[in-house]
Amino acid sequence: MEEFEKIRPYRDDEVAEVLRRVVADPAAAQGVARFLAPGCFRHAPRITCWALARALAWRTRNLRSVDDLHGEIGHWFGRLIRRTTTGLTWSGIETLETGEPHLFVSNHRDIALDSAYMNYALWSSGYRTSQIAVGENLFTHAFATDLMRLNRGFMVPRTGGSPRTQYAGMRTTSRYIRAVLDAGESVWIAQRDGRAKDGIDRTEPALLKMFLLAWRGECDAIGDWLRRVRLVPVSISYELDPCAGAKARELYLTARDGGYEKPDGEDHACMVQGILGFKGAVHVAFGTRVEGDFESAEELAAHLDRVIVGNLRMYSTHVFALEGRANLGPRVGEAFHGTLDDCPPEHRDYVLLQYANQLRNQRELVDGVVT
Length: 371
Fold this sequence. Notes:
The longest helix is centred in the middle third of the chain and has 20 residues, at 163-182. The protein has a seven-stranded mixed beta sheet, with helices on both faces. Strand 3 (131-135), helix 7 and strand 4 form a beta-alpha-beta unit. The chain is of the alpha/beta class. It has helices at 12-24, 26-36, 38-43, 45-59, 66-84, 113-124, 142-150, 163-182, 205-213, 222-228, 244-257, 266-276, 297-310, 316-323, 330-342, 348-365; strands at residues 87-91, 103-106, 131-135, 153-156, 187-190, 231-238, 281-286.
């Protein structure tokens, strides 16, 4: 794995040292303080952060491996789920082959939580968690980089630069994914580059072509590759999106100006907002392994789209946004309408669009009903 030193997650023998570095970073104590003791943090931030830094050091002092860390994170993540959702559920996990690596491809709604919820479902059900493909745009701060690499994240180069640079990045990612799968570990990757901010989930055929690069010369057809790799589509559904307002702003400015220049730090701000914000109900649906002789990457992408979109769970928020009527319930309704109230008037239609498009997309793509 020497050729992947710059992109790989941390190994077991690196965990203790990196944890000491993370715990010593003021950003770690601040993040924990905002979640565990928001009132104390507002009134006495310095002493709260000092106390929680000491507590973090104590809780992590005996962690010596990635699995040790994930066991600790799993308990904290369960607390986060109880605080920020009305419940996390999952389905289809029993179709996975125990002890075998899978290549999970999912829709992309939240920067950090899509893969985190899936891995929590795996961990809770007795499966080993997967490695996570993370765009290099999130590896800009040392603290964030350490957290992602501790959490089994590996860096995927962003598309850009010359065609030669883009191809080299795709080839490295493909070779790394194959190395991980060949070593018996699973991999999660989003179906497209960046979140589907408009609520329309589509698989990029270029992603599938990238997968095949590492098997070139061994697999003459997509069907041959699928017989070698356990490709599993995953659908992640949120009743509420804490970042809907920020996404609406981007959609509005893109429509108005013809493009959007993302400010520094926006991705990390959205990551924190997504993690700590209220999401209502969340569901993770594991599809069945994809098999068959597909003629092209485009045909395989269309199949993945039908499965991923078909397995999404639609909530009253999606019905309300599309049809203008639904019983949202008190807590969800307050959060949903609060987002609309907090937005500038010209952004509100783009908030509704994100929810409505998910239901519209499912009806059109899966049921053939145009709405």
